[in-house]
Amino acid sequence: MYAYAQEITPSIEYSVPINQEAKADDSHKGNIEDTYRLNWLNSVFEDITSGELKVFNSTETDKYSLLNKDQISEILHSIDTVHTINPNTNEPDIIVNENKVSPEDISELKFREKWSWNKEDGSLIKEIEAIGFMVKYYVDDNYLGDLTLFWIKP
Question: How many domains is the chain partitioned into structurally?
Answer without folding.
Answer: 1
